[in-house]
Design goal:
about 5% strand, 6 strands, 21 helices, about 60% helix, six-stranded mixed sheet, 2 domains, mainly alpha
């Protein structure tokens, strides 16, 4: 199969990916994912860092939201564009190493990766990191192979941007350093000006955030450690240093299995059959190290510290797995095997779309409990904005509460109030607390989570609080669900509301 035919098949698969995984959430979700809302809110303030992540995810998300005229479906579209950029980078790298057909198999197998299908509609820092990680791998290969200045600058650019999307990119950087130190071609790079030019560009992108972290007591790093259960009353027993990396590795194997199984099952080769294409030794070492070293470094970190590795941090780890499987298995290609592989991909693709539909439309009702993306955010925001306007005849300037509630109000309320996340000044450097007290605020909390009374933290923050009646609202579940399962009903969402009156006209 020549290059033109392989490109056409890749274009077809890319078009399906773009259409299906953009349309599904657009049609099925009545609200959206909390990460999208949080990044939109953060992006308004153009900080060099935030209390949970670096700056790139917030900047990109808000820019897309603003340029699209505040369209939420565009977020799902851009998330799929991230997937396609990742595929493009893997395709380009694969074509440097293997013929077009194996390169096509390497890329198309990634459609079986959980993070590129069921998780892909959630446009967040992980989805932005994934293509930047793949682009870094592409140009790092070129840089070490050719030592061209342009390639090293592209490595510095994409490695820097990836780091500013997610600090987890550190694991890729460690893998790159390991490769440079252990390979002759890599050690040669330290004698070339291009390496230092790329390093300078990388530092120019990342150092401002590093200085921001120092100024803010490494708040984002502390948050990452808290997610990894390394703070407070975390499990520090000896057994945790064994069980947590083991759970991480088992999780990685679970995500990797469909990719490798599809290639091995459809194109298996006996030991006696000759290889269909030659593999350069440098390319084999490169793909193996860049594919598995980040996984091993993560497992090592977990073993040393006892850290729990968040499942979503794994998002970029599988970019090169299809290529590695092709190089390792040396599959035999034939017309019948290619048809079987295409059928396998087609069944899996539409089955996964069906699973997503089930989770959004049916499973929520069966569980009798909805997640973040089903919060009636728009209804809450418009109701509170109207309540405030009717009561005080001034714009609503501030909303105070947990992230999932305050982010919804901040994005959807017509007055676009400033959110005061979790009532913690270090998480909200854009908030002038004196102005907050002068202009007043809406306080929101979830009754089921915090109880019927005004939370103590809110009581301590404000002297005058006017408690409002509890609001009971229906979850923002797709009307398709109500039409299909009329006998099932979700318990209502109960919202606690209080007002802090403004002290200035």
């Amino acid at each position: 199969m020549d290059m033109r035919v392989c490109r056409n098949w890749l274009f077809l698969l890319s078009t399906l990916q773009l259409l299906v995984w953009t349309l599904l959430p657009s049609l099925l979700l009545q609200n959206t994912y909390i990460d999208i809302l949080e990044n939109i809110v953060w992006g308004r303030y153009w900080q060099i860092g935030y209390d949970k992540d670096p700056f790139l995810g917030a900047w990109v998300t808000y820019a897309v939201y603003w340029l699209s005229g505040e369209s939420m479906p565009v977020m799902y579209l851009v998330s799929q564009i991230m997937v396609l950029i990742c595929w493009w980078a893997v395709w380009r790298l694969s074509c440097r190493i293997v013929p077009p057909l194996p390169a096509l198999i390497a890329v198309s197998s990634l459609s079986l990766c959980y993070f590129l299908n069921l998780h892909s509609p959630e446009f967040n820092d992980n989805m932005i990191e994934m293509p930047l990680w793949a682009l870094t791998c592409l140009y790092f290969y070129d840089a070490v192979k050719t030592q061209r200045l342009k390639s090293w600058l592209l490595v510095g650019l994409f490695a820097g941007l990836s780091s500013m999307a997610k600090y987890y990119t550190l694991m890729l950087l460690l893998a790159m350093i390991f490769f440079l130190l252990t390979q002759k071609e890599g050690r040669d790079s330290f004698r070339r000006a291009g390496f230092y030019a790329g390093l300078a560009l990388f530092l120019a992108i990342t150092l401002p955030n590093f200085f921001w972290l120092i100024e803010h007591d490494f708040i984002a790093i502390n948050y990452a450690f808290s997610r990894a259960c390394l703070t407070g009353d975390a499990d520090t027993t000896c057994i945790a240093h064994f069980t947590k990396p083991l759970r991480f590795l088992l999780s990685v194997m679970g995500v990797a299995m469909p990719i490798t199984a599809a290639i091995a099952g459809c194109f298996r080769k006996s030991l006696q059959q000759p290889a269909q294409f030659a593999v350069d030794a440098f390319a084999w070492r490169y793909v193996t190290v860049l594919c598995f070293a980040p996984i091993m470094f993560t497992a090592f970190f977990s073993a040393i510290t006892g850290a729990k590795i968040n499942h979503m941090w794994q998002t970029p780890l599988f970019n090169l797995l299809g290529l590695w499987a092709v190089l390792w298995l040396q599959p035999i290609f034939s017309g019948r095997r290619l048809v079987a592989y295409a059928i396998c991909l087609g069944i899996a693709f539409f089955s996964l779309a069906g699973i997503y539909t089930w989770k959004v439309v049916v499973e929520v009702l069966l569980k009798q409990r909805a997640g973040y993306e089903f919060l009636p955010g728009q209804t809450i925001a418009e109701s509170l904005n109207r309540l405030w306007r009717e009561r005080y005849h001034t714009p609503l300037r501030y909303v105070v509460g947990r992230r999932k509630l305050s982010a919804n109000v901040a994005v959807y309320a017509p007055d676009r109030p400033h959110p005061y996340f979790v009532m913690e000044p270090s998480c909200n450097p854009w908030i002038d607390r004196q102005m907050l007290h002068r202009q007043g605020a809406v306080l929101v909390w979830e009754i089921e989570e915090d109880g019927p009374e005004v939370p103590a933290a809110m009581r301590a923050l404000f002297k005058t609080i006017e408690v409002q009646p509890v609001q009971e609202l229906a979850w923002a579940v797709s009307p398709w669900a109500a039409r299909w399962l009329t006998k099932k009903s979700l318990s209502s969402f109960k919202l606690g509301v209080a007002l802090v009156p403004p002290t200035e006209n």
